[in-house]
């Protein structure tokens, strides 16, 4: 009997001692099971929508990558913004406040919401298309003024407006831009531009939630847009070329002191 009592006492102590071990093992199993569930959880958690960090291939440089905010949805979008100038667009959003000015531009674009990024890009496209149209008019008017001003002045008995510039079109580099009849022309252009800006201000600033296309002023008397589906692409390509051309005109004449029509045999 004494031996039986001793055996029962030992078994009782072993049972009591094994309870903490069992409880610890059970807790460890629960922890491992929880970790296993956490490792599989990312496939079920809905993450916030972010821009594509990889980006698409840039069309302007071999092997280049387009910024994530240039998704190719706009005509002529080849992913060209190496200096991240889109972040400088003044859209009045929270990212335009002074607290953001110390943050570099790529980081600012990354931290913006999709809505803010879209407004930045559309503001820049609006500015690009307006400068493109102005450059196309200037690229055509520059050589025409140098070719036709002298004969027209002779026929109409008016003074030769380009005499002071040696036949060159008045410009910031050539001088005489704010002298003579060109002053009145500049005033008219400024008034017309102000009227157009006022008309499209709400659309440009994103104040009207419509499907506004940047630069769309409803002007298409020849109905060219319906005749060709690539008119938006053609316009932006010609506009970019015109901006380069008009810059080249000004620099070339400032260096050589000769009209571009005198430097170009085709004229």
Task: Characterise the protein shown here.
The protein is mostly helical and 267 residues long. The protein is 55% helix and 0% strand. It contains 7 helices and no strands. It has helices at 2-40, 105-111, 114-156, 182-204, 224-227, 231-256, 260-263. α3 crosses α6 (231-256). The protein is elongated. Mean pLDDT is 77; it is low at 10-52.
Structure in a nutshell:
This protein is mostly helical and 267 residues long. Helices cover 55% and strands 0% of the residues.
Compile the SSE list and pairings.
Elements: H1 2-40, H2 105-111, H3 114-156, H4 182-204, H5 224-227, H6 231-256, H7 260-263
Helix pairs in contact: 3-6
Spans with pLDDT under 50 lasting ≥5 residues?
10-52
The proportion of residues forming helix, as a percent range, comes to 40-55%
Please outline the major beta sheet: none
How much is the average pLDDT? 77
Structural classification: mainly alpha
What is the 3D form? elongated
Task: Give structural attributes.
mainly alpha, 267 residues
């Amino acid at each position: 009997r004494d031996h039986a009592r001793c055996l029962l006492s030992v078994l009782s102590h072993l049972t009591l001692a094994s309870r903490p071990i069992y409880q610890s093992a059970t807790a460890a199993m629960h922890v491992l099971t929880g970790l296993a569930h956490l490792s599989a959880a990312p496939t079920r958690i809905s993450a916030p929508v972010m821009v594509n960090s990889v980006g698409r291939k840039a069309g302007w440089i071999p092997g280049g990558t387009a910024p994530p905010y240039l998704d190719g949805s706009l005509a002529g979008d080849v992913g060209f913004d190496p200096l991240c100038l889109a972040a400088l667009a003044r859209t009045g959003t929270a990212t335009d406040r002074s607290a953001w000015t110390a943050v570099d531009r790529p980081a600012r674009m990354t931290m913006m919401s999709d809505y803010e990024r879209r407004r930045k890009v559309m503001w820049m496209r609006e500015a690009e298309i307006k400068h493109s149209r102005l450059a196309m008019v200037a690229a055509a008017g520059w050589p025409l003024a140098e070719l036709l001003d002298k004969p027209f002045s002779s026929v109409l008995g008016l003074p030769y407006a380009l005499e002071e510039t040696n036949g060159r079109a008045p410009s910031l580099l050539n001088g005489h831009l704010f002298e003579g009849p060109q002053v009145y022309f500049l005033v008219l252009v400024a008034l017309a531009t102000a009227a157009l800006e006022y008309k499209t201000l709400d659309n440009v600033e994103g104040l009207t939630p419509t499907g506004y296309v940047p630069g769309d002023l409803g002007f298409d008397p020849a109905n060219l847009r319906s005749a060709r589906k690539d008119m938006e692409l053609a316009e932006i390509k010609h506009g970019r070329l015109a901006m380069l051309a008009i810059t080249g005109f000004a620099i070339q004449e400032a260096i050589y002191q000769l009209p571009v029509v005198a430097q170009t045999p085709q004229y």
